[in-house]
């Protein structure tokens, strides 16, 4: 499964990059395939391991700010691996064809 998620502190003002970095650090240290862009961090793995990492990422932000906003979007497709890369490669292939 792939889960794209965004975790943000609530009430911390406009500059939340330091808080978000705490969450992304948890994801990167997990060892699971992941990618971060301007809006979301995507992580790939089995249900329990992905949700555990997201829970710990939220806890990292919550430790510094009492209120946290979490947005999740999941692609649940058993048996698929390397989806973070292969899905993008498929789109790029179609774009290059015309």
Protein described:
This protein has 98 residues and is α+β, with helices and mostly antiparallel strands. The chain has a 4-stranded antiparallel sheet with strand order 2-3-1-4, covered by helices on one side. A hairpin with a 4-residue loop joins strand 2 and strand 3. Helix 1 packs antiparallel against helix 2. The model has no long low-confidence stretch (mean pLDDT 93).
What is the N-to-C succession of helices and strands?
EHEEHEH
Q: Ends: how far apart?
A: 30 Å
In spatial order, strands of the major sheet run 2-3-1-4
User: What fraction of residues sit in β-strands?
Assistant: 15-25%
* Basic shape: globular
- Runs in which pLDDT lies below 50 for 5 or more consecutive residues are none
Protein name: MTH1187 family thiamine-binding protein
Pfam families: Thiamine_BP
Organism: Streptomyces blastmyceticus
InterPro entries: MTH1187/YkoF-like, Thiamine_BP, UPF0045_domain
Key words describing this protein structure:
MTH1187/YkoF-like, Thiamine_BP, MTH1187 family thiamine-binding protein, alpha+beta, 98 residues, single chain, UPF0045_domain
């Amino acid at each position: 499964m792939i889960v794209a998620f965004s975790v943000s502190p609530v009430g911390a003002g406009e500059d939340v990059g330091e808080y978000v970095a705490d969450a992304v650090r948890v994801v990167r240290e997990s060892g699971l395939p992941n990618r971060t862009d301007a809006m979301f961090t995507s992580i790939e793995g089995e249900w329990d391991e992905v949700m555990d990492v997201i829970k710990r990422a939220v806890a990292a932000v919550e430790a510094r700010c009492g209120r946290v906003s979490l947005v999740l979007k999941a692609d649940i497709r058993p048996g698929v691996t390397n989806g973070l890369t292969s899905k993008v490669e498929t789109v790029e292939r179609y774009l290059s064809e015309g």
